[in-house]
């Protein structure tokens, strides 16, 4: 409930209701000036190494190297599931 001066009990002010997202726009502009966030991936020669072990895991190494264990391939059955794991490693 608001008091007579328009102030909420919690300390919220009615004038605070109007939000200004100019800081969001400025942040986006700075991000675009720097270039894409994935520019560090340009030119990498991606390699996927499959290790024949029952481990349900995958990991990445510098320079575009991805290691996937066959246990992961046996655990996830669909291409979409495996693609999600590899995409995460990228």
Describe this structure in words.
The structure is a single chain. The chain is 33% helix and 16% strand. The mean pLDDT is 80. The chain contains 3 helices and 3 strands. The chain is elongated, with a radius of gyration of 24 Å. Strand 2 and strand 3 (65-69) form a beta hairpin. The longest helix is centred in the first third of the chain and has 13 residues, at 22-34. With 90 residues, the protein is an alpha+beta fold.
Entry summary:
By secondary structure, the protein is of the alpha+beta class.
List keywords for this structure.
single chain; 90 residues; alpha+beta; 3 helices; 16% strand; Mito/Outer_Membr_Metalloprot; zinc
Number of distinct helices: 3
The structure class reads alpha+beta
Low-confidence stretches: none
Shape: elongated
Strand neighbour order, sheet with most strands: 1-3-2
Relative strand content: 15-25%
Q: Classify the helix fraction into a percent range.
A: 25-40%
Please give the number of β-strands: 3
Average pLDDT reading: 80
What is the CA-atom radius of gyration, in angstroms?
A: 24 Å
- Element-level helix/strand string: HEEEHH
N- and C-termini, Cα separation: 51 Å
- Biggest sheet, in brief? 3 strands, mixed
Q: Please identify the oligomeric state.
A: single chain
Task: Give the arrangement of secondary structure elements.
Layout: H1 22-34, E1 47-51, E2 58-61, E3 65-69, H2 70-75, H3 79-89
Parallel strand pairs: 1-3
Antiparallel strand pairs: 2-3
Pfam families: Peptidase_M48 (PF01435)
Region (Disordered): 1-40
InterPro entries: Mito/Outer_Membr_Metalloprot (IPR051156), Peptidase_M48 (IPR001915)
């Amino acid at each position: 409930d608001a008091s007579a001066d328009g102030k909420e009990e919690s300390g919220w002010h009615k004038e605070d209701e109007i939000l200004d997202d100019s800081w969001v726009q400025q942040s986006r502009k700075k991000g675009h000036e720097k270039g894409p966030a994935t520019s560090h991936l340009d030119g990498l020669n991606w390699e996927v190494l499959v290790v024949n072990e029952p481990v349900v895991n995958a990991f990445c190494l510098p320079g575009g190297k991805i290691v996937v264990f066959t246990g992961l391939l046996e655990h996830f059955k669909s291409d979409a599931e495996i693609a999600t794991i590899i995409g995460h490693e990228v």
